[in-house]
Amino acid sequence: MARQATVTRETRETRITVTIDLDGTGKADLSTGIGFFDHMLDGFARHGLFDLTVRCEGDLQVDCHHTIEDTGITLGTAIARALGDKAGILRYGSCLLPMDETLALCAVDLGGRPYFVYDAAFAAPACGGMDTQMAREFFYAVSYSAAMNLHLKVLYGENDHHKLEALFKAFAKALSAAVRQDPRIEGVLSTKGSL
Question: Which of 108, 125, 126, 132 is most buried, judging by how many CB atoms fall within 10 Å of its CB?
Answer without folding.
Answer: 108
